[in-house]
Amino acid sequence: MYRGSMVALVTPMKADGSLDWDALHKLIDWHLEQGTHAIVAVGTTGESATLNMVEHLEVISKVVDQVNGRVPVIAGTGANSTSEALELTQGAKQAKADACLLVTPYYNKPSQEGLYQHYCYLAREVAIPQFLYNVPGRTAVDMLPETVARLATVENIVGIKDATASMERLQQMQALTDDSFIFLSGDDATSVDFMALGGHGEISVTANVVPAQTAKICELALAGNVEQARELDRPLAPLHEALFLEANPVPVKWAMARMGFLDGALRLPLTPLNAVYHAQLEAAMLSAGAI
To answer: Which CATH number applies to 4-225: 3.10.20.30, 3.30.70.260, 3.40.50.720, 3.20.20.70?
Structure first.
């Protein structure tokens, strides 16, 4: 169920900062047409940090309703407050999301024991499949393989999104968990290598821009056709890089606006992509066949 290309969906906004429900509706339809295997609603790319609780849960609910079971919907419900993460996860379950994605508590810098207790509590309190999410480059905390192994035995914790871009880290975690535990890449540039080593798919920023290509790459890699996957991924390499010229989701929202899907609005403290990067991102989009 949780395999392949899972788009870390952007949250469209209007110039006044309000949420653009029409644009969201069109994006979901497009992803379903393009073959995206699952949709991740209100993760980092979905600007979870600047949505209030009501908006956050409303986006999840609208995505779930529109997808209507055609692909899995994974709701981003992590927070650096365990009580807030609990409220979001409960809301996602009530909205009938298929699973939740919970980033490690950022800024607080909890210990490994603190991470373990945080996730155990959430898994115990809400009976919904839950994915751990480790992205130390953004959170200032790194969930170590030994902690992942402890959590992999907890009921309702089914897998991890790992954005360390380390194949050694993947293999360390695989050695400490059983075959039922799901590994998802959180780094587009290394996702083919990740799947070649036994990963089950990726939660992708690039899939916002080129969903059909990203889905095909995952299908090839998961079928064991790794060289074909690499060949298809090669023209996307500049895009993988350009989408992080500034903090995600600034570049991807500019790209989606360039494609006509939304107007590219962001909420402070994020600001529009610096003009010095426009040409590089546009060239990467051309190389990937997005425009």
So the answer is: 3.20.20.70
